[in-house]
Design a protein that fits this description.
- Helix content is 66%, strand content 8%.
- With 128 residues, the chain is mainly alpha-helical.
- The chain has one domain.
- The chain has a two-stranded antiparallel sheet.
- A hairpin with a 5-residue loop joins strand 1 and strand 2.
- Helix 1 crosses helix 2, helix 2 packs antiparallel against helix 3 and helix 3 runs parallel beside helix 4.
């Protein structure tokens, strides 16, 4: 089993990489720090559950007996958790602009940072 220290290192790496990707795309703002941290934690949780799912043979469904004694098939709890987390991760990636769809939405709303004009850059260089 993985140690808490190892898990924390993985979360920090995922957090830093996510912020780095957002900065490259121009979608990062400091107020995103908390949601990005939750996203990084969820990514590591997803990886842990996904590994367990593979170890258990990638079972998607299982047989169960209901109250009246009828046998049915249902999705396993592990698979349902993975399915839910996958949706949540994709939603966050869209919000952060880390998917083509999300980046398009950000750009369509004009939320990306404004590019500096040549004059702004020249004035910045003169004062620096």
């Amino acid at each position: 089993m993985e140690s808490a220290k190892s898990r924390k290192i993985k979360i920090t790496k995922a957090y830093n990489k996510t912020i780095e990707n957002m900065q490259v795309l121009g979608t990062y703002k400091p107020e995103f720090e908390a949601p990005v941290r939750r996203y990084a934690e969820m990514r590591i949780q997803y990886d842990i559950l996904n590994e367990k799912w593979y170890e258990e043979g990638c079972k998607i469904t299982e047989e169960y007996t209901n109250k009246s004694g009828a046998k049915n098939r249902r999705k396993t709890a592990l698979y349902l958790s993975l399915e839910t987390m996958r949706r949540e991760l994709i939603e966050l990636e869209n919000i952060f602009g880390l998917t083509p769809k999300g980046l398009r939405a950000i750009r369509a709303k004009g939320l990306e940072p404004k590019k500096k004009s040549a004059l702004d850059k020249a004035l910045e260089n003169m004062s620096g």
